Amino acid sequence: METKFDFSSNNLFTPIAFREDFNQFARLSENQAWSLFFTASREDSALGFNRTAGRFWTGLVVATVVEAVLGVIIFQSF
Questions:
Q1: Which range of residues forms the domain containing residue 60?
Q2: Each residue of 3-17: pLDDT tens digit?
Q3: Which candidate, 18, 21, 20, 17, places its Cα nearest to that of 35?
Q4: Quick check: 45 and 53 in contact, CB under 8 A?
Q5: CA dihedral 15, 21, 27, 28 (to 10 degrees)
Q6: Closest by Cα among 27, 65, 34, 26 to 51
Q7: How many CB atoms sit inside 10 A of residue 50's CB?
């Protein structure tokens, strides 16, 4: 059995965000952004390629921020 993976690369343990070939000003999807966040820039496809997971995490953060702001507004008035 022969593997085609290059183990001698200098980028083997380098975070993806710091590799020369990673971004080059390309747009990131929500999944790629959250995958990079959760894996500390080690993997950009950890959540897969389904857009639903990225939208879920984005919606969760937005809902949490809105709930916190509304909670402060409501409970500070009493």
A1: 29-76
A2: 665 566 666 677 777
A3: 17
A4: no
A5: -30
A6: 34
A7: 10
